[in-house]
Design a protein that fits this description.
The protein is α/β, with parallel strands linked by helices. The protein is built from twelve helices and ten strands. The mean pLDDT is 92.
Amino acid sequence: MACGDPCQVPEDSGLRFHYVAAGERGKPLMLLLHGFPEFWYSWRHQLREFKSEYRVVALDLRGYGETDAPSHKENYKLDCLITDIKDILESLGYNKCVLIGHDWGGMIAWLVAICYPEMVTKLIVVNFPHPSVFTEYILRHPSQLIKSGYYFFFQMPWFPEFMFTVNDFKVLKGLFTSQATGIGRKGCRLTAEDIEAYLYVFSQPGALTGPINHYRSIFSCLPLQHHEVIMPTLLLWGERDAFMEVEMAEMTRIYVKNHFRLTILSEASHWLQQDQPDIVNKLIWTFLKEETTRKRE
């Protein structure tokens, strides 16, 4: 596995994006977008798995890890995050990719697919519904509104960052390991080294502000004006997701105007590609090798 040098994104902001890449240059591009509170490392199992046939690139999103972090929350609007992906694709020397996103990275992946359909050959999203489903569902289901309460908590200045650091980052560790939100007994538990990698990244000075700023700008961009997804799409879902109700997964179907496959894993958590990497990788391979002329399932 090779660590990529920070790539200079050719846009006015001049931000440098850090990524880790595996697989030979020139192979089809597979671009991986992580969620919160994660970084490229959440895709370590997929970097190893898909490098045989793809140039696999796992980003640190804007504000995360070793990628540059603008200080103002206005720099984290969804418009900026979508443009980042377009510019990074071009910086890597590609005009299209297989795009995979988890959680918040899944939100970005949906939006890139909607706004730049010519750049996405196949879309794979892990544990995040179509953004229009999310906004409609949360308004009608108080239970999901409660599960998404951190979206509102994160609107506060500085205090959310402080809460993550209390008691040696207990909240951060608990997200991945607690019985309520973490990977279950039947999953691929994070090792001590895995936890240490997360703690190292998010314990750096100011390392939490960029990630939380993503949420501080979300309400400026929803609801969407355009909705339809026109490329073949795979949605993978851990049914034991503590943050997203599984009913939203099936509802996503109506917005995909192409082959749509939904697979729900009953014992899996929100952290699906880390929780059940072998199953997830197998499902992705199957989808990638499928003919795309089949009807939606």
